[in-house]
C-alpha cells in the first residue's frame, strides 16, 4: 500500500472550490513535489493530508489511515514542517527541540537533530534572536525529531539564502536515503528538480500534469532547439534529436563557435502548463 | 526493535506546564504587569479609602486585600488563558502541537499549571501586602482549609471560562480589550471594588450572583476577615455551601464550553 493514496479529493470553502478532485499516489521512500501558483490548492491539499483540515469529498489514506480521523499513534509517525510559525520565541533551540522530542515514543537525540539542520552553534540561542532562515531550520528540526515515516514540507526554503538552500537539500536527500517519504510543496522549480523523484503541477485546484522532473508535461519528448551563426546569418532549428543535425553541420564545415542546444527547462514547461490552465 | 511507548497525557501536560512557565518568566513585561497590577490597585484603594468599618476594627484596606485576591485569581486565570490561547492560535503553537501526538487535554493541562503557579504567586504577593502594609491578621487553620478549596475552584472556574471565551477572540491583539469588558464589569457589581455589595441595586446583585466573581470575593472575605463582617454581605451570611455550589457549577459549565469551543486551528472558512 502506498504511503499517500488520494482519490477525487475535494475541498470547498463557502462555495469556493479550492481543491476540485485530486488523485495522488506516493509510494514509500519517494520524494514527491507539489508545484503550483499561489491559490492553486497546494497548502489546502497538504493540510488535509496532515489532518489539519477536513476534506469536503473524496478518499484520502495516509499511512493506511484516514487523516481526518487518525489518532495519536498516527501523528507519532508523521512529521510536519510549518510554513509560517513564530511560536516559542522565548525558548532556546535546544529547549524547544527537547520539549517536542518528549512527545514521541522514539525521538532522535536532540543534539543530533540540531546538528542535522546545521544549528549547533545556535543551540543555546533564544529562537527570537534567529534569522528567518535559521528559524525555518528550527521548524525542520521539529518536524523530523520524532523520526517520521512521512514528512510534510510546505514551502520549506522560503527566505533561505542560496547556501542555506543547498544545505537544506542535502538534508532532505539524506532523509530520503534513510527511507523517509517526503511530500514537498515549493515555488522554486530548481528545488523540485533537485529533490523530487516525481512531481505534480496543481492549478486551479486540479492536477494539470504529473511525472518525473525529466518527463513532466512532455518535456522529455519536446526535443531540442539548435542555434548557430554561419557567415553572419542566424540559424535556428527545432528537432527531435539534435545528433543528426549537428553531424550534418560538421560535415558541411559550418562555423560552430556559437552553437547552442537548448531543451525546455522545467520552468518553461511549468509556465506553459499553468498558462494553459489559467 | 523494542516496542516504544507513546508518552502519556500526564507526562506531556507536565512538560507543557514547564515550557509555559519558562516562556512566561522570560517575558519580563508580562511578569511585571500580571503581578504588579492587582498589588498596585490594592495599594491605591487602601490609601484612598483609609477608614474602617464602624465598630468592627476592620479597616477598608483589609477588606480590599481579601477582595483583591479574588481579582488576582480572576485576572491571571481569565486573562492569561483567554489571551494566551488566542496568541497560541496566532503564532502557530497550536498548529505545531496538533501535528504531534500530544492531546488537547495535555495542552490545556499545561495552561492550567501555568495559571495555578501564577495564581499562587499572585495571591502570596497580595497577602504579603495585606499583612505588611495593612496589618491584616492571618486566619486560623480552619479558614485555611476553606481557602484551599476556594482557591482551587476559583482557579479552575476562571481558567476554563478563559479558554471558552478565547473562542470569541479572533486576533490576539484585541484579546485584552475584549476580555477586560466582562472582567471589569463583573468586578464592579461583585463587591470587589465596591463593598458592602448591598449599596448596589438588588437586581444588579442578582445579576452578579449568576457569575463566579461575587462568590469568590465573598469567600475570600470569609477567609481573611473576622466573623462579624458577615453582616455586610448580601445575605448577611457567608454562605460557604452556596459558594462551593456556584463555583463548582461554573467549573462544569466552563468545562462543557471548553469541550464545545476548543479548536486546534482556526475554523475552516
From TrEMBL, chain A:
<dbReference type="GO" id="GO:0005524">
    <property type="term" value="F:ATP binding"/>
</dbReference>
<dbReference type="GO" id="GO:0016887">
    <property type="term" value="F:ATP hydrolysis activity"/>
</dbReference>
<keyword id="KW-0046">Antibiotic resistance</keyword>
<feature type="domain" description="ABC transporter">
    <location>
        <begin position="4"/>
        <end position="229"/>
    </location>
</feature>
<keyword id="KW-0472">Membrane</keyword>
<keyword id="KW-1003">Cell membrane</keyword>
<keyword id="KW-0067">ATP-binding</keyword>
<keyword id="KW-0547">Nucleotide-binding</keyword>
<dbReference type="InterPro" id="IPR003439">
    <property type="entry name" value="ABC_transporter-like_ATP-bd"/>
</dbReference>
<dbReference type="InterPro" id="IPR003593">
    <property type="entry name" value="AAA+_ATPase"/>
</dbReference>
<protein>
    <submittedName>
        <fullName>ABC transporter</fullName>
    </submittedName>
</protein>
<dbReference type="InterPro" id="IPR050763">
    <property type="entry name" value="ABC_transporter_ATP-binding"/>
</dbReference>
<keyword id="KW-1278">Translocase</keyword>
<dbReference type="InterPro" id="IPR017871">
    <property type="entry name" value="ABC_transporter-like_CS"/>
</dbReference>
<dbReference type="InterPro" id="IPR027417">
    <property type="entry name" value="P-loop_NTPase"/>
</dbReference>
<dbReference type="GO" id="GO:0046677">
    <property type="term" value="P:response to antibiotic"/>
</dbReference>
<dbReference type="Pfam" id="PF00005">
    <property type="entry name" value="ABC_tran"/>
</dbReference>
<keyword id="KW-0813">Transport</keyword>
<dbReference type="GO" id="GO:0005886">
    <property type="term" value="C:plasma membrane"/>
</dbReference>
Automatic annotation (TrEMBL), chain B:
<protein>
    <recommendedName>
        <fullName>Transport permease protein</fullName>
    </recommendedName>
</protein>
<dbReference type="InterPro" id="IPR000412">
    <property type="entry name" value="ABC_2_transport"/>
</dbReference>
<feature type="transmembrane region" description="Helical">
    <location>
        <begin position="30"/>
        <end position="49"/>
    </location>
</feature>
<feature type="domain" description="ABC transmembrane type-2">
    <location>
        <begin position="29"/>
        <end position="265"/>
    </location>
</feature>
<keyword id="KW-0813">Transport</keyword>
<dbReference type="GO" id="GO:0140359">
    <property type="term" value="F:ABC-type transporter activity"/>
</dbReference>
<keyword id="KW-0046">Antibiotic resistance</keyword>
<keyword id="KW-1003">Cell membrane</keyword>
<dbReference type="InterPro" id="IPR047817">
    <property type="entry name" value="ABC2_TM_bact-type"/>
</dbReference>
<dbReference type="InterPro" id="IPR013525">
    <property type="entry name" value="ABC2_TM"/>
</dbReference>
<feature type="transmembrane region" description="Helical">
    <location>
        <begin position="176"/>
        <end position="197"/>
    </location>
</feature>
<feature type="transmembrane region" description="Helical">
    <location>
        <begin position="146"/>
        <end position="169"/>
    </location>
</feature>
<feature type="transmembrane region" description="Helical">
    <location>
        <begin position="108"/>
        <end position="134"/>
    </location>
</feature>
<dbReference type="GO" id="GO:0043190">
    <property type="term" value="C:ATP-binding cassette (ABC) transporter complex"/>
</dbReference>
<dbReference type="Pfam" id="PF01061">
    <property type="entry name" value="ABC2_membrane"/>
</dbReference>
<keyword id="KW-0812">Transmembrane</keyword>
<feature type="transmembrane region" description="Helical">
    <location>
        <begin position="244"/>
        <end position="264"/>
    </location>
</feature>
<dbReference type="InterPro" id="IPR051784">
    <property type="entry name" value="Nod_factor_ABC_transporter"/>
</dbReference>
<dbReference type="GO" id="GO:0046677">
    <property type="term" value="P:response to antibiotic"/>
</dbReference>
<comment type="similarity">
    <text>Belongs to the ABC-2 integral membrane protein family.</text>
</comment>
<feature type="transmembrane region" description="Helical">
    <location>
        <begin position="69"/>
        <end position="87"/>
    </location>
</feature>
<keyword id="KW-0472">Membrane</keyword>
Amino acid at each position: 500500500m502506498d504511503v499517500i493514496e488520494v482519490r477525487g479529493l475535494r475541498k470547498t470553502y463557502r462555495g469556493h472550490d479550492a481543491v476540485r478532485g485530486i488523485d495522488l499516489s506516493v509510494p514509500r521512500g519517494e520524494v514527491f513535489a507539489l508545484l503550483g501558483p499561489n491559490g492553486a490548492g497546494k497548502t489546502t491539499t497538504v493540510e488535509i493530508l496532515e489532518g489539519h483540515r477536513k476534506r469536503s469529498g473524496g478518499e484520502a489514506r495516509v499511512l493506511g489511515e484516514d487523516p481526518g480521523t487518525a489518532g495519536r499513534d498516527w501523528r507519532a509517525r508523521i512529521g510536519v514542517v510549518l510554513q509560517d510559525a513564530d511560536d516559542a520565541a522565548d525558548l532556546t533551540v535546544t529547549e524547544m527541540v527537547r520539549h517536542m522530542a518528549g512527545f514521541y515514543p522514539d525521538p532522535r537525540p536532540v543534539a543530533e537533530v540540531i546538528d542535522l539542520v546545521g544549528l549547533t552553534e545556535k543551540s543555546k540561542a533564544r529562537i527570537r534572536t534567529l534569522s528567518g532562515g535559521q528559524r525555518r531550520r528550527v521548524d525542520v528540526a521539529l518536524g523530523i525529531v520524532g523520526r517520521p515515516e512521512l514528512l510534510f514540507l510546505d514551502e520549506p526554503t522560503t527566505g533561505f539564502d542560496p547556501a542555506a538552500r543547498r544545505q537544506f537539500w542535502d538534508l532532505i536527500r539524506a532523509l530520503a536515503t534513510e527511507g523517509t517519504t517526503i511530500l514537498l510543496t515549493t515555488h522554486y522549480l530548481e528545488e523540485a528538480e533537485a529533490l523530487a523523484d516525481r512531481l505534480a503541477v496543481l492549478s486551479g485546484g486540479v492536477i494539470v500534469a504529473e511525472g518525473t522532473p525529466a518527463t513532466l508535461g512532455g518535456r522529455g519528448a519536446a526535443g531540442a532547439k539548435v542555434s548557430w551563426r554561419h557567415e553572419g546569418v542566424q540559424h535556428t532549428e527545432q528537432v527531435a534529436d539534435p545528433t543528426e543535425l549537428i553531424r550534418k553541420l560538421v560535415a558541411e564545415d559550418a562555423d560552430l563557435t556559437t552553437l547552442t542546444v537548448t531543451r525546455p527547462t522545467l520552468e518553461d514547461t511549468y509556465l506553459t502548463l499553468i498558462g494553459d490552465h489559467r | 526493535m523494542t516496542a516504544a511507548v507513546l508518552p502519556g497525557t500526564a507526562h506531556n501536560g507536565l512538560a507543557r506546564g514547564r515550557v509555559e512557565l519558562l516562556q512566561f518568566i522570560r517575558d519580563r513585561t508580562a511578569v511585571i504587569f500580571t503581578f504588579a497590577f492587582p498589588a498596585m490597585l490594592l495599594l491605591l484603594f487602601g490609601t484612598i479609602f483609609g477608614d474602617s468599618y464602624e465598630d468592627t476594627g476592620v479597616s477598608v484596606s483589609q477588606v480590599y486585600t481579601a477582595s483583591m485576591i479574588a481579582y488576582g485569581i480572576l485576572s491571571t486565570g481569565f486573562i492569561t488563558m483567554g489571551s494566551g490561547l488566542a496568541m497560541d492560535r496566532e503564532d502557530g503553537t497550536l498548529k505545531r502541537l496538533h501535528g504531534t501526538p500530544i492531546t488537547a487535554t495535555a495542552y490545556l493541562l499545561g495552561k492550567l499549571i501555568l495559571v495555578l503557579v501564577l495564581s499562587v504567586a499572585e495571591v502570596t504577593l497580595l497577602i504579603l501586602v495585606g499583612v505588611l502594609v495593612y496589618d491584616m491578621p492571618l486566619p486560623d487553620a480552619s479558614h485555611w482549609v476553606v481557602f484551599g478549596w476556594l482557591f482551587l475552584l476559583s482557579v479552575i472556574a476562571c481558567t476554563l471560562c478563559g479558554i471558552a471565551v478565547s473562542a470569541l477572540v479572533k486576533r490576539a491583539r484585541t484579546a485584552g480589550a475584549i476580555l477586560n469588558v466582562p472582567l471589569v464589569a463583573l468586578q464592579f457589581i461583585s463587591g470587589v471594588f465596591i463593598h458592602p455589595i448591598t449599596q448596589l441595586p438588588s437586581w444588579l446583585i442578582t445579576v452578579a450572583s449568576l457569575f463566579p466573581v461575587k462568590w469568590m470575593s465573598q469567600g475570600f472575605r470569609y477567609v481573611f476577615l473576622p466573623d462579624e463582617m458577615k453582616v455586610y454581605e448580601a445575605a448577611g451570611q457567608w454562605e460557604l455551601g452556596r459558594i462551593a455550589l456556584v463555583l463548582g457549577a461554573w467549573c462544569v459549565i466552563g468545562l462543557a464550553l471548553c469541550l464545545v469551543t476548543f479548536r486546534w486551528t482556526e475554523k475552516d472558512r
